[in-house]
């Protein structure tokens, strides 16, 4: 049987001071054959409460006490799915989704998650549509062995409250340093082993892992730029001999941080462009050996991937790339969810939004680039 959506109503403690009595629409109780005035279990995330159900003629509602709502982070007006499992005599509401984000800015109440706030609003609305609850938490909110977690949720404004451990934990941490913090790893392990929490985007795959996986798919190989782990000078030399431009990317990097573009000039010299927040820093070298000596300190501290440079479409001299979000549906079939174009900011050679890039549609980017269709052209 499919789930039924109910609207949460919160009443004062006159129902039951401990939350052990809940009221449910008579039509829903009959549909699910939920018995009245018998001991059942109500579940939301990892939280459990022994309850008995009283009927109400009000359609489509689940009424709980204010004490129970406060303990579970429930808000009046929440639209949640409800399902009854007679074998375990359990009423399940939710699911509850927790999203790990890197940071919250308390000084920006309207945009507590910075540029990610729009995504958080979008996910909140999607959850309301489908009957789920969602909250957002940072590594500082996670306690290693706790069965609850502080999180932010939107109820007309962003509010922080305490929630049970969620059914699903979505990792959107943009920093490997944050992801690998001891309390984060311990919290994730605790949630998974004690509460069977599912993980989405369990960890960020590094670039070497991604390329190695993609190379195993024969149908993808013609689309992949040549890419290798930069182990030594000889690897850089061989790549620069084959391609006029190559990119050096930190294996565990993100948001365009630390990328170096190496370009071979007609006279045999080399020019490096290093990413920074203001654009790109340029440095010239008379030989590749001198260039490698200059960056060898970086290469020793951080693993780099060396990748074939591509001659991209451009808008007003700024490179454009296209990002497709591909997801697997409930029947296991892969499908394209969305495709967007990213245009690099002024004085940048990467299109990451964190480096001044901007989003637009594929149609708009192609029109502004002066081409009728996107063609991948190798350097």
Explain briefly what this protein structure is.
The chain is of the alpha+beta class. 23% of the residues lie in helices and 37% in strands.
Largest sheet: 7 strands, mixed, barrel
Strand content: 35-45%
Could you estimate the helical fraction of the residues in percent?
A: 10-25%
Question: What is the number of helical segments per DSSP (H or I, 4+ residues)?
Answer: 9
N-to-C terminal Cα separation, in Å?
A: 56 Å
Number of strands: 25
- Tell me, what's the shape? elongated
Low-confidence stretches: 374-379
- What do the pLDDT scores average to? 90
Structural class: alpha+beta
Rounded to an integer in angstroms, the radius of gyration calculated over CA atoms is 26 Å
Order of neighbouring strands in the sheet with most strands: 1-5-2-4-3-7-6
Highlighted features:
379 residues, alpha+beta, seven-stranded mixed barrel, 37% strand
Structure explained in plain terms:
The structure is a single chain. The chain contains nine helices and 25 strands. It is α+β, with helices and mostly antiparallel strands. The protein has a seven-stranded mixed barrel. A six-stranded antiparallel β-sheet has the order 14-19-15-16-17-18, sandwiched between helices. A four-stranded parallel β-sheet has the order 9-8-12-13, with helices on both faces. A hairpin with a 5-residue loop joins strand 16 and strand 17. The longest helix is centred in the first third of the chain and has 14 residues. The chain is elongated. The N and C termini lie far apart (56 Å).
């Amino acid at each position: 049987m499919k789930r039924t959506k109910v609207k949460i109503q919160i009443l004062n403690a006159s129902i039951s001071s401990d939350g052990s009595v809940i009221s449910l629409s008579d039509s829903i109780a009959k549909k699910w054959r939920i018995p009245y005035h018998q001991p059942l279990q109500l579940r939301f995330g990892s939280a459990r409460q022994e309850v008995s159900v009283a009927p109400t003629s009000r359609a489509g509602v689940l009424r709980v006490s204010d004490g129970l709502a406060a303990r579970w982070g429930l808000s009046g007006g929440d639209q949640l799915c409800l399902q009854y499992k007679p074998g375990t005599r359990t009423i399940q509401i939710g699911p509850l989704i927790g999203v790990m984000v890197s940071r919250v800015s308390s000084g920006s109440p309207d945009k507590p998650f910075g540029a990610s706030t729009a995504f958080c609003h979008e996910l909140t609305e999607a959850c309301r549509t489908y009957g789920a609850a969602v909250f957002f938490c940072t590594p500082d909110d996670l306690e290693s062995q706790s069965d609850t977690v502080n999180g932010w949720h939107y109820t007309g404004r962003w509010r922080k409250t305490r929630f049970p451990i969620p059914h699903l934990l979505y990792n959107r941490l943009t920093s490997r340093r944050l992801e690998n913090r001891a309390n984060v790893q311990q919290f994730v392990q605790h949630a998974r082993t004690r509460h069977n929490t599912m993980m989405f985007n369990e960890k960020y795959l590094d670039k070497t892992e991604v390329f190695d996986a993609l190379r195993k798919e024969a149908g993808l190989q013609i689309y992949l730029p040549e890419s290798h782990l930069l182990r030594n000078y000889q690897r850089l030399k061989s790549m620069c001999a084959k391609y006029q431009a190559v990119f050096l990317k930190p294996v565990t990097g993100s948001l365009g941080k630390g990328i170096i573009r190496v370009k071979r000039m007609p006279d045999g010299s080399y020019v490096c462009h290093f990413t920074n927040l203001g654009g790109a820093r340029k440095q010239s070298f008379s030989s590749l050996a001198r260039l490698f000596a200059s960056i060898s300190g970086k290469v020793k501290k951080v693993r780099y991937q060396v990748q074939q440079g591509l001659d991209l479409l451009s808008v007003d001299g700024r490179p454009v790339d296209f990002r497709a979000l591909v997801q697997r549906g409930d029947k296991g079939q892969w499908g394209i969810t969305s495709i967007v174009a990213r245009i690099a900011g002024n004085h940048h050679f990467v299109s990451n939004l964190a480096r001044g890039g901007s989003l637009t549609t594929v149609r708009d980017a192609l029109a502004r680039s002066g081409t009728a269709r996107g063609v991948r052209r190798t350097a």
